[in-house]
Amino acid sequence: MSWWGKLIGGAFGFLLGGPLGAVLGAALGHNFDRGLGQLLGEGGVGGAHSHERIQLAFFTATFSVMGHLAKADGRVSEDEIAMARQVMAQMQLSPDQKKAAIELFNQGKRPEFPLDDVLEQFRSECRRRQTLIQMFLEIQIFTALADGVLQASEHRVLLHICDRLNFPRALFEQLVSMVRAQHAHGGAGARGPVGGPSLKDAYDVLGVSESASDDEVKKAYRRLMNQHHPDKLVAKGLPEEMMELAKRKTQEIQAAYERVKEARKQ
Predict the structure, then answer these.
(1) Which of 61, 112, 160, 266 could form a disulfide with 122 if both were Cys (CB 3.0 to 4.6 A apart)?
(2) Average pLDDT of span 8-27
(3) pLDDT in tens, 163-175
(4) Residue 48 C-alpha from the chain's centroid
């Protein structure tokens, strides 16, 4: 049974206590309150880090932090709402899952949303799964760039998120460049022009400069493909519903690599 099936079916043993559990309980309403309040302690029953538990933490953190980030500049734009719905659509969520994601998004918009506590628990649940944290950040950056502009307030919140997750700022800025490039040609649900990447965008997607050697380009491509491999991400705890997002990322990386190889006549 999937993590969602266990959640709805009342199999609480793998679930979350703490800030993430509280946010999820508030999002799902009274049907879940008793399960959280009476069956779960801090960190969940037995403290077990099951696969389903990590998937639930990723789902809960993704949509609640997405809502918080969308409100960072004082208002939630139509573009940001559309981007959140695009992510939900790409995940092919069931009606109940979509409702939960929307409620988590709304929880994140609240002034009292405990961002730091949520991020601390999310980091703990992921443990050393750096690729999961990177995928989480990429989704948040796409949300911030939904209107085509990364506002200063959004950038500050994203940097704060990186610091709380112990994610290097230099690598974060590289992710921003990569996501900008993907957004520019309509990647991962962005509403930019359709078509292959420009040469500059292709280099940004791969995270290398135009002066990089062929070997450096190839190594960057292989590293990114390994980081975004859907099966590997799901094995680390990415919810199965997000596999389509990972597949699209690998397609964009492949398109960028092909564009660079074409320009270099390889």
Answers:
(1) 61
(2) 71
(3) 999 999 998 998 8
(4) 23
Per residue, the 3-state secondary structure of the chain, as one string, reads CCHHHHHHHCCHHHCCCHHHHHHHHHHHCHHHHHHHHHHCCCCCHHHCCCHHHHHHHHHHHHHHHHHHHHCCCCCCCHHHHHHHHHHHHHHCCCHHHHHHHHHHHHHHHCCCCCHHHHHHHHHHHHCCCHHHHHHHHHHHHHHHCCCCCCCHHHHHHHHHHHHHCCCCHHHHHHHHHHHHHHHHCCHHHCCCCCCCCCHHHHHHHHCCCCCCCHHHHHHHHHHHHHHCCHHHHHHHCCCHHHHHHHHHHHHHHHHHHHHHHHHCCC
Residues 43/115, Cβ–Cβ less than 8 Å: no
Please provide residue 128's backbone torsions phi and psi, each rounded to the nearest 5 degrees. -100, 20
List Cα–Cα distances, 116 to 39, 51, 134, 163, in angstroms: 25, 23, 17, 10
